[in-house]
Amino acid sequence: MARGQMSFILVQVIVGGLLLGAVYALFSSGLTLVWGMMNIVNFAHGDFVMLGMYAAFVVFTLFGVGPLAGVPFATLLLALLGVVVYFALIRDIMKGPMLAQILGTFGLALLLRYSVFWWFGANFLSLPQDIVGGTFAFLGLRIEASRLLAGVVALFVTLGLHLLLTRTSLGSKMLAVAEDATAAQLMGIRPDTMQAIAWAIAAGATGLAGALIATFFYIVPTVGETLGIVAFVTVSLGGFGSVPGALIAGLLIGVIESLSAYLIGDVYKDIVVYVLFLSFLWFRPQGLMGKT
Amino acid sequence: MRRFLWPALLLALIVAYPLVFSTPFLQRLGALVLLYAIAASSWNVIGGYAGQVSVGHAVFFGCGAYAAMGAYAHFGLSPLVGIPAGIVLAAGIAAIVGVPTLRLSGHYFSMATIAVAELVRLVVTNTDYLGAAVGLSGPTVPRNVFDLSFISALPYYYLFLVVLAVTLLITWWMANSRMGFYLRAIRDSERAARSLGAPTSRTKLYAFMLSAGLTSVAGALYAMMFGFVDPESGLGILISVKILIMAALGGAGLLFGPLVGAAILVPLEEISNSLLGGQGAGLTFVVYGAIIVLIARFQPGGILTLVKRELERRGRAPGKQKALQAGASHAP
Amino acid sequence: MQFKQLLGLVCAAAIAIGLTGRALAEDKVIKIGAIFPMTGNAASAGVHAKAALEVAEDIINNAHPELGDLPLAKNAGLAGLGGAKVQVIFADNQGSPATGQNQALRLITEEKVVALTGAYQSGITLTASAIAEKYGIPFVNGESVAANLTERGFKWFFRTTPIATDIVKVYYDFLADMKAQGIKADSIALVHDNTEYGTSVANTIAAGFKEKGLNPLDIAYVSNATDLQSQVLQLKEKKPDVVIMISYTSDAILFAKTMQAQDYKPPMLLCDDSGYSDPSFIKSVGKISQGVLNRSSWSVGPPGSPTAIIADMYRKKSGDEMDDTAGREMQGFFVLVDAIDRAGSTDPAKIQAALRATDLKPNQLMMGYKGVKFDEKGQNILASAVIIQLQDGENYVPVWPKANAAKAPVLPYKGW
């Protein structure tokens, strides 16, 4: 009896890990886009996720509607913010050294985090537990509808971004700018416009992620700190700029975390992740799907 | 003669600061500026001169802090005894970490250093010998002067000033040696440097170890002043970022850049906190964040580059700016 | 010329700081410094503490005869100092031991406070009180639980809160009592985060229970988790009779959500204050945590009672319900001001002597301690706690011990 139950719980752990990993992938895809394509380290990424969460919360408290309205609102709001941030800050610090990017985006992170703090206060907020249909049992596995939704959306977002970059003319223009802005300009592509679009897409995807995460996570101004560092590891494991890489890396980290938390102990799970990450860098310094 | 007037005046001001601004809080503020200037100047060796952006210097900071507190907590020794141990430990970790990670380019090196720092923080949090999450405390009541536990910040100020002077001297000496020449070549183009026969890997490793050792001294001094270290305050990512942004804000790769950065950011942080922190509305960091954003936006190379350009504009003799020249241009 | 303006701003701020210390040197106002985390991860606790101390300030400075035996409430100001008013100067520790110490120094030397209170996180209380000790300024702490705080031989440090050893006794006695009533409580799981608070409380509980022949299962996790499914599944598999939870708010909320998602209900869910006392916890997940038991020293009491009036004042001030942490901070502050009143002076040594002589009875307290009396280390030897339960998912009611209980405990755990 014990063995059967044990392996069954193990399946539940793995399924939970996959769902968690999909969420990691979801909120990392925006980061990999700007990091990989424009070589920008965005320390404010976690706070973009946080803003998406608050956007969903505001929609819910004002109009009483769930993610159906909250997700599009958060996506649009953050896309707009992405464009504003690009023209107000990023365009200028891109010309400077990498350090200026860390400096600028770190300052931006504090500014966003504590503006939200100032407006909403420090209390923990939460959306109703059953906002996306509670939990259901499937083959004896318990699956939260909200996490499943986030996982499915993660797949679609990844696919969508991947197709956009590889199959559309907008995508090839963006990649051309990423490759060589001057050459692209000579070919009649306006780097500024392309990069602003890239920021809108990246920030929009991040806002979408935040709005979905809000359906099963608590909301607090400092939540971006918790999520930001996970996104960093996911993106670099996946390879900077590789959207499918971020998905695979996210799933991998989710499963490793869940399994090691269950088998070895939760306090060691991050140690396992970092050790694997570092040894991976040793053998493949360009990440899972990154170019050399 | 005039060219020495301003530096001499500045130096006099720095030495006289705690005597002029003699309230305990302002003295302590001065000491903190120097403390963070030591840490940021140490980071500058690898992050500024060599252009290898480490976002994990908290590891080395923590080595010093834990060595100093450990010497007291476990052996009843003066925390001073921990300093050499911290230097050796930090340089050792830098060597172990540096060999595999320094060959990584750009962002991967930064990510690897973040990962190492987080890893060490997590391990220490689970290590009872190092106080786990509770941390290690120093002597609460000083037994003698070697416990370096003073009420006034004055002794700290001059101690830190001496250490900072030594740190800057070492940096200056390094920047003007063959090693500094190699490092600048590596920063501008590693491939070109290698093809010209510069021992790039070895040079970077030495710079990393030197930077680590110096940073650990800052960590040890920090722990002695506050009498306490725990995983978050000794090894947290915020420490790494703080060290980095001070150097970046002042001017990375410039000898006095980190000092300028610390002289701006530390008072800004403490004063905005003192004025706004008690309201509990988070405005401290709104102001602090906004100012950092503005500086990055309008002066991406750091504040000293502004000064440097101003000096160049006035057509001063370039000989005087040898030290400043160290980081003239920034390769992406 | 952005930078000249910036520089001007910094200079102006520096001058302003220099001036504030000297201005307002009124005799009639007694300044007390309060250091709390107003930003960072623990900011919600700091903001609540600020509201609590502001209510206390109001109670002390204005006449509140309706508050009964509570010292300092009856008349306006401090009788012992000719009706002098109390002013709390708040400072933000930013969750950093260094900042906490810097602010303690600023409060002592620039603001000239006569005493200090705070600083929530034990590590910061440690560094902040070290400065107070060096300057010979009394430091009264109402909420930090780390054992080492009162083991340093300090002469100026006093603590009113129950600490881990007191907590173990409450839990053990409660479980023994439940067992006597026929409730199964043999296997115990101890779930705690790996922060200084979680580890130290869990270690003390584990050691205390082992002495009595119990061997709790230890499940540690990293604070501010993104996912807690594995811990819940571990519990589901081990099926302990009692789960003791030691968590901050963030993880407490996530645990509640995950337990519902995994359909796991332990027969008894016994929690250790902090996260489970946070009003945000009840607002967020109270409805799916019905029947959760919690350790607390605070209870609202019947309408019209002093505690109910205080709870009301606090609600008006902060917009949230009073919780145990804010209450313990407020109690610590009252003890400090009472000592200043009895000292009849702002001389630190006299306040210290008055603190040593403190002997408050239960009817003089807002918290459910058996009294306040300090041992030679500065620890309150009469601190205690009761068990409360969130029976309806909205309000905690005291359920144990019988003398303090408003209702009988309802078991097993209901959840949702």
Strand content of chain C: 5-15%
β-strand amount of chain B: under 5%
Question: What is the element string of chain C, with H for helices and E for strands?
Answer: HEHEHEHEEHEHEHEHEHHEHHHEE
Beginning-to-end CA distance, first to last residue of chain B: 38 Å
Per CATH, what is the topology of the largest domain in chain C?
Rossmann fold
Return the CATH architecture of the largest domain in chain C. 3-Layer(aba) Sandwich
The amount of helix of chain C comes to 40-55%
Give the overall shape of chain B, derived from the CA principal axes.
Answer: globular
Strand order in space, largest sheet of chain C:
7-6-8-9-10-11-12
Whole-number radius of gyration of chain B?
20 Å
Structural class label of chain C: alpha/beta
Helix/strand/pairing category of chain B: mainly alpha
Work out the largest interface and the residue count of each chain: A-B, 50 and 55 residues
How many individual helices of chain C? 13
Low-confidence stretches of chain B: 317-332
Count of β-strands of chain B: 2
Task: Count the beta strands of chain C.
Answer: 12
Quick summary:
The complex is a heterotrimer of chains A (292), B (332) and C (416). Chain A has helices at residues 2-38, 45-63, 67-93, 98-120, 145-167, 169-179, 181-186, 191-213, 223-238, 243-263, 269-283; strands at residues 135-138, 141-144.
